[in-house]
């Protein structure tokens, strides 16, 4: 059934586990994430990023409606989350499109601007009954230089600054920069567990790990033990899908029916989903 992201994250945090949130791009992603979660009987979050909406000719509804329809029929709780939203126009489509939560991403802005934009987004989201995640990366903009992208390899969230940011913005969860970075194709990230410990102690809201495709299993387990309650995964699904399709097409150069290779790609993604969920709940 369709679930609310806030409920899944709260339950995961209470059980000292993390809910996995997978970025969906195609209908095959939707089906694979749900099949993978069903195979391990675990709840899951389907998330649509602003970039994925751009890929879908700027339209949110076709993918959102497909995801909601699939979620309603799933045997496990499935929540819909709008990810890395920078556009206010997209933000305002969230509720009507069936999303229970949004990640508002103003982390590219200097601290005060990030705070002001995030507070306005949080006020709006809460008035709609939406759960909202925001992001705070490196301390930046102090000497006129732009802040580091929060998931650039060198970015780190400062616990004292994050504490003030959460209190002043009113967000329900915070994405923190502790060593992961987006779109890694090797699982070689090492996390700053000591910083995570300080962030967890300082914040009092669930913490979210982005760029989790590049984080090895052991580091993921340690991050969950250290207070991460939502783990965002995108690239790992594309690695699985594209690798499987590439192999299939190499072995079957005569193949033309798209169902033949899409099903292979979908199966590979479902396997990745199940494997990662097991790591998070172990
Ligand atoms: O918000 C989405 C995640 O941070 C995905 O990152 O593609 O590096 O796994 P990833
Ligand atoms: Zn992310």
UniProtKB/TrEMBL annotation:
Active-site residues (renumbered): 83
Single GO molecular function: zinc ion binding
Positions contributing to Zn(2+) 2 binding: 105, 135
Biological-process GO terms, alphabetical: carbohydrate metabolic process
The keyword Zinc is assigned to this record: yes
Segments passing through the bilayer: none
InterPro entries, per database record: Aldolase_TIM (IPR013785), Class_II_FBP_aldolase (IPR050246), FBA_II (IPR000771)
One Pfam entry name: F_bP_aldolase
Matching SUPFAM superfamilies: Aldolase
Free-text cofactor note: Binds 2 Zn(2+) ions per subunit. One is catalytic and the other provides a structural contribution.
Record-listed Zn(2+) 1 binding positions: 84, 182, 210
Protein's UniProt name: Fructose-bisphosphate aldolase
Organism of this sequence: Streptomyces olivochromogenes
Record lineage: Bacteria, Bacillati, Actinomycetota, Actinomycetes, Kitasatosporales
